[in-house]
Structure formats: C-alpha cells, structure tokens
Design a protein that fits this description.
The structure is a single chain. This protein has 304 residues and is an alpha/beta fold. 26% of the residues lie in helices and 21% in strands. The chain folds into 2 domains: 198 residues, no CATH class; 75 residues, no CATH class. The chain is globular.
C-alpha cells in the first residue's frame, strides 16, 4: 500500500518525503523501511531527504502546487466487523489531517507555501471497503475536504485514483483476506535540498491531471534515459513490459509478456508468464527480489 501510493504520487509530480510505517506484532520495521527505500530508489525517487515518523500521515508528499497527506490501511484478515473498525480508524485519521492551507515554511522553503492541501485515503479495493466507501464517503464530503480515494488493486498492484467529484469504479473487488500538520525535519531536509529537487525534472511541478478511473498510465510521464522502456527501445529487445533497477535486484512484477528486467549493463527477457513465474532466481510477491541481481540469471544479455 505504502509503496504503491508513493509511486503514484511521484507520477503526479510530487516528492514523497515523510513516512509513518505501521509497527506491531509480526512486523519487522527495519525490513519494511528497507523495502520502501529500495522501491523508491528503483523508481528514481530521491531518498536522501526521506524522513520516518512514528505518527501523523502515512505518506506526506510535496510539490510547488500540491501538499498531500495520505492515510493507508491494509485489508487484514479479520471478520467483517474488524474490517469496519479498520475503515473507521483510517477515515478518522485521514479527516483529522484536514487543513485549509499548506504549512508555512521558512526561507527558501517558502516556495511551497502556496501549495493546495490534498487528503488521500488509500485502501485495498476489497468488497468490504468499497461497500463502506459507497455508503459513507460520498462526493459532497470528498469535495469539501478535497479527499481523494486511492484504491489499491490487489491483482495488478497499482493505484486506481478516485477524485473527489468522481464515482467509485464498478469492478469485481477481491474479498478482504502531531497536530496533523507534519513539519520537515531540518536534520534530514535542508531548504537547499528541497528547492533543488523540486526544480529537478523528476519532481518538477506539472498541472494536476486526473487519471481515468480503473486505468493507469502506460508509462511514467517522464521517461528517464535509464528507464526500462527507453532501454527496451535502445537495445531493440522487443519486450511488452520493461522494468529497470540500477542494482538489478528489486522490481515490480511483470504483467505482460515477453517481459524484461533491465539493469545499467544488460537485461534478461522472459518470453512467457510460465517461464517467468517458474524461475528459481526470482522471489515473486508484491515486489520481486532477485538475489545477486539479474546478471546471475542464465540468459542475461550483457550490452555494456
């Protein structure tokens, strides 16, 4: 949830800056932090300023025009009443972050002071959660609070954004198996760093755009020279889905085939989904870990 939400915010032109990762029984906070940082790094999102907090929004992201505070809640394994309680807590937390203007930052950070506040409620697209959203979080409330619902598709591992004036998507969901305004931590974030990154192409402010419901971009708006898609074209690989990681060790799952994983020096191509899922070199879950990097996989083609 946290990773998918952060990647979607970045495609919108924001810099995910502050995170509050859930803790508790059975949760290894250190591993979860590392997974998040690896995913951000793999997507080309700067992590030198990343700040971890113990309270407040699960994700805070900034640009010159938008200031986002997002509450994330997983599906869990509880019965329906437990799902209702989880939903209540998530909604209450998201609403508690409402402000009528973005925080006022000093000095060079004042470039952020005109940003419009956005609230986000990120939930898995399960039947129970969608029922609660349709009954209790209607358009008038979402418009008043500028509250976006970010539905996490459990099949494609992508975010389906629902703007305040849009209806919830009609598709078959899967069953469920601090004053509110965070301040930037000067020990990890300097005005110069924020200003520099907001001026960079990776997080440069674009006019807000609304993604179609139940769809997502075919590729990020800005294609980097070392992205999977650009290398796919440059090296004439012919993959239908191309993903890049600079260390070759951490990727999103491939969804179309032939599919290819790239690192700076080469790639490995999987002709079919069966070949991909049966590879003993890949640990496939919500994210894909490649122990030792893709260069250790038979069939890896070195291009540099």
């Amino acid at each position: 949830m946290l990773i998918g939400c952060s990647l979607w915010l970045h495609t919108r032109g924001l810099l995910p800056l502050s995170f509050s990762i859930a803790s508790g029984h059975g949760i290894d906070l250190g591993i979860d932090k590392q997974r998040l940082l690896q995913a951000l790094d793999g997507a080309g999102i700067p992590t030198s300023m990343t700040d971890f907090r113990t309270d407040g929004p699960d994700v805070t992201a900034i640009s010159k025009s938008e200031f986002w505070q997002v509450e994330c809640k997983g599906a869990g394994q509880g019965k329906q009443s437990t799902q209702r309680n989880n939903f209540d807590r998530a909604l209450a937390s998201a609403v508690s972050y409402f402000v009528d203007q973005s925080p006022q930052f000093p000095g060079e950070l004042s470039i952020l002071n005109g940003a419009i506040p956005f609230l986000g409620l990120a939930l898995p697209a399960t039947r129970d959660y969608l029922d609660q959203l349709r009954r209790r979080v209607r358009n008038p409330l979402r418009k008043r609070l500028n509250l976006w619902v970010l539905l996490y598709d459990l099949k494609s591992h992508t975010i389906i954004p629902v703007a305040p004036d849009e209806s919830y998507p009609q598709f078959q969901p899967l069953p469920a198996g601090a004053d509110g305004i965070p301040s930037l931590n000067p020990s990890v974030t300097s005005p110069e760093e924020v200003s520099r990154h907001l001026e960079s192409s990776a997080v440069n402010v674009r006019e807000p755009r609304r993604l179609p419901v139940a769809q997502r971009p075919a590729h990020p708006p800005t294609v980097r020279s070392n992205s999977g898609e650009s290398l796919n074209r440059e090296w004439n690989v012919g993959a239908r889905h191309s993903l890049y990681h600079r260390d070759g060790t951490f990727y999103m799952p491939l969804e179309r085939f032939p599919g290819a994983y790239f690192d700076p020096n080469g790639y490995v191509l999987f002709q079919t989904e069966r070949e991909y899922v049966s590879s003993s070199y890949l640990s496939i879950g919500e994210r894909v870990n490649v122990k030792g990097g893709i260069s250790t996989i038979p069939g890896y083609r070195k291009m540099k």
